[in-house]
Amino acid sequence: MRIIAGEMRGRQLKAVEGMQTRPTSDKVKGAIFNVLGNKVLDARVLDLFAGTGNLAIEALSRGCREAVMVEKSLAAHQVIRENLERVGVTHKAKLLLMDAFKYLNRHPHEVFDLIFLDPPYRQELVLKIILSLKEYSFLTPTGVIIAETAKDETLNEDIYPYEIRKTSEYGDTKVWYLQKTDV
């Protein structure tokens, strides 16, 4: 796993040992950032279920202003800390050891330009997080939620004020791009 573009391009990131954490592949990560384009520049990023920090660190490499990373696994949290130190961006990152839902409940006034959601597959966690995000205004008016699920998962409940703007599939992974409906 490596940073694929930006000022830290080519730098290797450490993975979490075992099968509990499934980092976003370089192919999927590259596709996500191609879709986002310049939205990353000077963005404030939230990475829930941060895993290895792969997505947030890629955003930092590509010019985002700040990344908040939330991870409840102690082992993954330690790997993220090592990755942030390895690439020298600890000053631009806030790393929290906590559950994603607790973070949302404790920080209802935080606002982000990009929100990455890459939870364990097939547990309907993306839908549950989106329903939690609806309660407060976590997303800027032109912000984007980028969610990864298994390809057979759906977002079949009312997710208003968000709407699905694009989906893409890569192997067993489906990537969803959501924005507020009035954008």
UniProtKB/TrEMBL annotation:
UniProt keywords, alphabetically: Methyltransferase, Transferase
PANTHER family: METHYLTRANSFERASE
InterPro entries: DNA_methylase_N6_adenine_CS, RNA_MeTrfase_RsmD, SAM-dependent_MTases_sf
NCBIfam families tied to this protein: 16S rRNA (guanine(966)-N(2))-methyltransferase RsmD
UniProt entry tagged with the keyword Signal: no
Designated name of the protein: 16S rRNA (Guanine(966)-N(2))-methyltransferase
GO molecular function, one term: nucleic acid binding
Biological-process GO terms, alphabetical: rRNA methylation
